[in-house]
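Tip: read the tokens left to right.
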């Protein structure tokens, strides 16, 4: 048993809460949807493990909702914010309590959908998303299954629809040519564009839907001991409706130009959170570090509106990137500056989010551009100190990849006053074995 599993078992035991081994193992609802930059459930559990009953944990950058779900599983309250409406829907669907009646109703509906759907074995003109080069994603057989499922799920409402949309997301990714062996989503190496409709492929995709449905229902059935909510909002300011937190635990976007909209586009198109490419650029522009599509040219012409406490360190690094980065240099220099400018707007808001004595934990990686290191962890530490966080500590929690210089850090500290519960330090044998990706 890993120390983290031991911790959760102890907590669940001492709090008298019941969860099965699957949730303890960190699978369950955490596994509902893949987002490459999702962080480790064990890591969150380790950080929040010592918080007393009744505590509130806030994650200003929710992603797939790992933090509020881990908190709710441990019997405390989790709340999070995300700027992406799809992730807000996903998080709240993962955090809902499902009654047996709701699960039975969804099961009956799913069974009817599969029976009717299998009968329509031919290419139809049903709606399909306007996803760029859709034929690279799916062969005609599974694409047809997805179209049939989409049309059938559109006839449902409420809890059933939410659960079936999750199952559709899992089915569409499992039947696609998407590969996850890179930091960001790409296509499988050997994937070829198939043009013929194959009835066996069509039918096999319904099998995937059935298998995924069974696994989602099983984990939805596991009750949550605590509560969690995801709010739609921009963490560069104060978002209304949140309770004051005992701890902030989060991993903001890294300074690596990863676009969450790009990563999530197959789900967002099939669930109609995105309709056309310009929407993707507009949404990415709202996200910290978003430079996908039109957001990239906007970054190039961006100008700062405020100073940050680390400008004297950022500016020489971005000037060096501008000088050495060739054609992309000026845009990347702005990107690095804007990223920290936006994070400073966020950090300025956190004293209002946290109770006196509350702790903060920011999981962040450094990065390099053309050989110039962007030490986001150090700049986070300085910005946190500037908003009154005390005992700021930067610890390495993981080496990111074979590049010797890239690490993931936990930048932590606490506000003064109150009954401060010291954040747990991760010792070598508690270092998370693997992240979810
Ligand atoms: C690294 S991901 C978080 C991953 C998360 N820890 C998980 O386990 O899934 C960062 C998230 O920050 C969100 N984000 C970016 N800019 C934001 C902003 N201004 N306000 C709120 N959320 C934002 C992105 O949409 C993305 O979901």
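Filled-in amino acids:
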């Amino acid at each position: 048993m890993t120390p983290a599993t031991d911790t959760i078992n102890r907590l669940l035991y001492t709090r008298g809460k019941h969860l099965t081994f699957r949730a303890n193992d960190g699978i369950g609802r955490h596994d509902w949807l893949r987002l490459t930059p999702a962080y480790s459930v064990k890591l969150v559990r380790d950080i929040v493990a010592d918080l007393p009953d009744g505590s509130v944990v806030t994650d200003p950058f929710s992603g797939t909702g790992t933090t509020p779900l881990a908190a709710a599983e441990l019997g405390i309250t989790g709340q999070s914010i995300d700027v992406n409406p799809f992730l807000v829907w996903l998080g709240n669907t993962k955090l809902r309590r499902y009654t047996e009646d709701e699960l039975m109703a969804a099961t009956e509906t799913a069974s009817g959908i599969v029976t009717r759907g299998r009968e329509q074995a031919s290419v139809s003109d049903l709606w399909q998303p306007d996803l760029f080069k859709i034929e690279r994603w799916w062969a005609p057989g599974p694409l047809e299954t997805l179209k049939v499922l989409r049309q059938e799920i559109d006839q449902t409402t409420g809890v059933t629809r939410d659960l079936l949309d999750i199952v559709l997301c899992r089915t569409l990714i499992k039947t696609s040519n998407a590969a996850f062996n890179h930091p960001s989503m790409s296509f499988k190496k050997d994937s070829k564009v198939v043009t013929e409709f194959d009835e066996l492929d069509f039918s096999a995709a319904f099998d995937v839907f059935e298998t995924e449905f069974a696994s989602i229902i099983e984990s939805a059935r596991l009750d949550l001991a605590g509560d969690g909510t995801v709010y739609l909002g921009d963490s560069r300011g104060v978002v209304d409706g949140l309770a004051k937190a005992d701890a902030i635990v989060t991993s903001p976007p890294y300074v690596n130009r990863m676009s969450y909209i790009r990563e999530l586009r197959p789900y967002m198109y099939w669930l109609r959170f995105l309709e056309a490419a310009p929407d993707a650029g507009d949404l990415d522009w709202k996200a910290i570090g978003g430079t996908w599509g039109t957001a990239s040219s906007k970054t190039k012409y961006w100008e700062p509106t405020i100073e940050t406490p680390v400008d004297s360190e950022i500016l020489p690094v971005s000037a060096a990137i501008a000088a050495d980065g060739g054609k992309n240099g000026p845009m990347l220099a702005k990107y690095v500056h804007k990223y920290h400018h936006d994070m400073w707007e966020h950090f300025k808001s956190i004293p209002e989010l946290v109770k006196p004595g509350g702790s903060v934990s920011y999981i962040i990686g450094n990065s390099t551009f053309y050989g110039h290191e962007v030490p986001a962890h150090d700049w986070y530490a300085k910005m946190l100190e500037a908003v009154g966080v005390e005992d700021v500590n930067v610890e390495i929690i993981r080496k990111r990849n074979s590049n010797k210089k890239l690490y993931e850090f936990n930048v932590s500290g606490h506000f003064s006053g109150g009954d401060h519960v010291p954040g747990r330090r991760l010792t070598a044998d508690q270092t998370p074995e693997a992240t979810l990706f």
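Confidence is low (pLDDT under 50) at residues 1-26, 423-437. Residues 35, 37-39, 61, 63-64, 66, 81-84, 87, 234-236, 251-253, 260, 287-288 surround S-adenosylmethionine (CB under 6 Å).
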